[in-house]
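Q: A small favour: would you put together sequence and structure tokens for a protein?
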Amino acid sequence: MGRAGRFIATPASRRKFLRYAGLSGIAATVLAGCTKAISNYKGDGKGPTGTISLGTGDVGILNFAYALEQLEAAFYTVVVADPYENIDSLELSRLTDIRDHEIAHREFFKTALGTAAIPALTPNFTSVNFASRASVLATAKTFEDIGVSAYNGAGSLIVNPAYLTLAGKIVSVEARHAAYIRNLITPGSFADSTVINSNGLDMNRTPAQVLVLAQPFITQTLDGSSLPTS
């Protein structure tokens, strides 16, 4: 099996995620809020063959985030399982940390969503040369920049304040990842003008814009047409 085909679903506990994100104070609130949302959820999250509906409302936004975390977790799992050529021990250690964070994020959303969670996605990494540092880091930069802009753009669409707090805690971790990856590629580029505007604010994208960028890396088609837009 080639590098791009390796996807190890390494388990990560919800407790581990709470340690990473400092969410122990709001976790119960988030999960309790999901109970009502899930009870109002219609369907099993699956559309026509090969298409997965993300759903509506806050549950749809959580599934949107869950899809992105699945993608990132899968990518870094391959990177760490079969590192690129001439990787040094520090880079491997930091990329392993990022892998563990992304797996923890993924597992938290899976647990929080329960039966409303979309199915496990199948990543498409055929465009990535996992033996090449340049290819791996360029892809990592793409994923991290997409992730930060996705959380920033989805924040205003979230109704439940507990979910908004959760998103804020996760996006701060994703931004740390993005800065580290950017600095590995070009030292000093961690917060350049391609991601930070003249007001000192991070870029944001709507879910529709994010899905266009993420879709080439996912085998199934993600349908975000029912997600809130305002």
In short: The chain has one domain: 3-223. The two ends are 44 Å apart (CA to CA). The helical segments are 14-21, 27-39, 57-81, 89-113, 133-154, 161-185, 207-214. The first helix runs from residue 14 to 21.
